[in-house]
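Practice set, problem 2.
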Amino acid sequence: MDNIRSSHNVGSIFRTADVASVEKIFLCGITPGPKDKYGRINKKLAKVALGAEKNVAHEHCKSTGVLIGRLKKHGYKILPLEQNKKSVNIFKFRPVKKFKYALVLGEETKGLPEGILKKADKILEIPQRGKKESLNVSVAFGIAAFHLLY
């Protein structure tokens, strides 16, 4: 998660990640974690996560770009979820079981910066049919995570 602002969204992503057996969540930039810098529980996040924040491994990283470099060295394919002229319909993307994937989620209103998108192996997009331009980041994560599983 790159600079996700809402503790509610982060809590929802933790809960979905638990159900989807996500290996690890990376909280980058200003993305809030289950505890603040003083070790106090983030009550907003915990209320939505319903304990999943205790089950899913997580790590805070200052820089999403540095993290992506680290993940690539460990063999991960980088998949930002973003509306972009280079993005492909997520439902036309077929995950290959031999690969490990890192799904990258961007800030709720601005999305992911171009520098992050340039590091992608493939940019994925969920097609939109209504009048709104996008889904809530936690909903989009749920759709993408389960698509990558199956």
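Problem 2, part (b): a different protein.
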Amino acid sequence: MSGSGRVIYFNGQFVPESEAKISIYDSALMFGDMVFEMTRSFQKKQFKMREHLERLYAGLKILRIPLAMTIEEMERATQQTVEANDRLFAADDEHRLMIDVSRGLLGIYQDNVGVPKGPNVIIADFPLRWTVANMGQLFDSGINGVIPAQRTLPGSLIDPKVKNRSRIHYLMANIQVSRVEGKNNWALMLDPDGFIAEGTGDNFFMIKGNALITPEGRNILRGISRDYVIQELAPKLNMQVVEKNIEPYDVYTADEAFITGTPFSMLPMTSIDGLPIGTGKVGPAYKRILGAWSEAVGVDIEGQIKSWDLARNSNQSNNAPTPYQFKSK
């Protein structure tokens, strides 16, 4: 092995991370024709892996990617990938898995370019701390949700519930938000009907009284973290859950708001378009939900991310885009 020492699961074999490549003629490069999932661990144990894989296989079915590998075989492959790399992770690291399945070579290139045809299954494993770098302070300040001109794609064009790599609309939203003055600005996209939909890789919740309110599942990616809050944490805390159309006005008048996403679990949203939500500070209901999540997985989620930020070398920061923000140089 060379480079990082980490290995990637690639179509049944483990190869060095730097050598894991797909063809330039792959349908993924031509069309963004790839279904994927990204997971995380708590105390090195993968969280909701089965649910992630069930969503992956639903996407494969809908996009008609003919993968012979069963979901049980895929789950074993993820476990093997973690085991193959765990020795390279620090004691306080968590495993961030990226599972990609592409359709493979387009027909005109098959048998012509010296590359095997058929779907490609790629499983990468890297430290979660990469994904959440510099997010620790957001647990104290909260993020400012900014509504960009870019809207989510309607299901009549491409079903947003299929987690695929055709995500240029997410990037466009982040580019637009990057033009807004201030810091901690994250995109909060509207759907084609003008209702609050989702962020560029996260789901939205607002709190009004004891009600936990989130957009209907029509025009969003139905997140695994979103489902966990709705189905497990809210009932545990005796909170009412309402899925409905949300207008920006509703957020302006909410008591609290937050977003959910696999790597960071939950982040508070303390303002929208620069206007404070509630008191403009991190609220007690958010803290209760995050506390219940931390207790359930045996990890201080906020404390863990903050500790990673403290340990980081400040020279590691850069201006490259992330899944959640576009940074102009």
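Answer key, part (b): The chain has a mean pLDDT of 95. Residues 71-85 form the longest helix (15 residues).
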